[in-house]
């Protein structure tokens, strides 16, 4: 599996990394760290859903593979959204540029015509 995909959670959320997530799920965090993770969960709905889903896993040995799979799925989803947003932006830009050029051209043409009519 691509190493870039394994760290999507830590790259997308500055409050929690994969190791802290695994420590939270295994109950190894101190009081302050535990409070910080729970605060992050309250602020981030996706993180909260992900942790709740991971807590329901019965076989804790497979948890890292589930976390890796979740990270890979989230990376793919984010990449698809980014590509759609980029395509939409590229499609919208030419019309805006055409409109600006057309308006400026009409203003220049109107100025020239009015100036010629006043000097005749």
What can you see in these coordinates?
The chain has 120 residues and is an all-alpha fold. It has one domain. It is built from 6 helices and no strands. Helix 4 (31-43) packs across helix 5. It is rod-shaped and about 90 Å long. The chain starts with a helix and ends with a helix.
Give the class from helix and strand content and strand pairing.
mainly alpha
What form results from the Cα inertia axes?
A: rod-shaped
Calculate Rg over CA atoms: 27 Å
Helix count equals 6
Average residue pLDDT:
77
Low-confidence stretches at least 5 residues in length (pLDDT < 50)? 1-6, 8-13
Largest sheet: none
What is the N-to-C succession of helices and strands? HHHHHH
Q: Helical amount among residues, as a percent range?
A: over 70%
Number of domain units:
1
Report the count of strand segments: 0
Taken as a percent bin, the fraction of beta residues is under 5%
Q: Roughly how many Å apart are the termini?
A: 78 Å
Looking at this protein, list some descriptive labels.
120 residues, mainly alpha, 6 helices, 82% helix, 0% strand, disordered N terminus
Short description:
With 120 residues, the chain is an all-alpha fold.
Task: List the topology elements.
Blueprint: H1 3-6, H2 8-12, H3 18-26, H4 31-43, H5 45-55, H6 63-118
